[in-house]
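agent> Task received from the user: take the single chain below, predict its 3D structure, and emit structure tokens. No templates, no multimer pairing.
agent> Plan: (1) validate residues, (2) run structure prediction, (3) serialize to tokens, (4) report one or two observations.
agent> Step 1 OK, no nonstandard residues flagged.
tool_call: predict_structure(input=
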Amino acid sequence: MSHIDDPYTQKANLAYIRNSMSEPILEREHERNLAIRWREHGDERALHELVRAYTRLVVAMASKFRNYGLPMGDLIQEGNVGLMQAANRFEPEREVRFSTYASWWIRSSIQDYILRNWSIVRTGTTAAQKSLFFNLRRLRAKIEGKNEGEGLGDAGRRKIAEELGVNLKDVEDMEMRMAANDQSLNARIRDDGEDEWQTFLADERPDPEDIAIALKDSKTRSQWLEQALGELTDREQTIIRERHLGLETVTLEDLGKQLGVSKERVRQLEARAMDKLKVSIGSRAGDMRELLFLEG
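)
tool_result: status=success, residues=296
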């Protein structure tokens, strides 16, 4: 999937890159001073000077990822997001140069953007998959170079899996994914035809006729059940409703207390009521297993 900037955007990007490269390089002590002023006093002028000085770092980092087919301007923009995060989290007392600290944030922000937008299909979610995505091309080229153009091969894939700490299948899947291009389901199968790829996708949902029949059958079974329940005694109806038709099943012991009989007596009444229901509904339906609550 390739994205090309329009001429106006390309011109704006070039102007931004030139301005970034013309920013003065900060001395270590001045850089630390700016970071302290921002961190401890919220000095926005110090923050802006610190960030502007390292937009050149963003441009350099973004250029390393320009071969993934995404607009250079978008890569720079995402890198600037990482740069701002670095400036907000930087701790000058640790005696680490801001450029060293910011590089990780810039790279991470650009890589996350690429993973989200390189393909309409989610490419990598774990740290291992992310590492595989961004290192597969380099390692594959290195191995193929040693094999004098013979290709990657199973041995090469195993070597990559071992080096990156991933499964062999992950390497195979990622290699296949990166070799394929996204294609619209609305694309025509042939240039001289009208059929689109989506025409041949099977719809596994039930059709309207099946839905209508299922609803009618469900309504009929409900009517049979209500009629059969009406043939039971009040106590038998209570037991069946509490034991089989409620959201929560009431225990035999609790029902016994409610009805003033023993747990064993409730069990006997339940069994008798179930038999009555089977006979009653059987005269209407034939197959008792159609009613889920009677299964088993």
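agent> Step 4: summary for the user.
The first helix runs from residue 7 to 22.
agent> Done.
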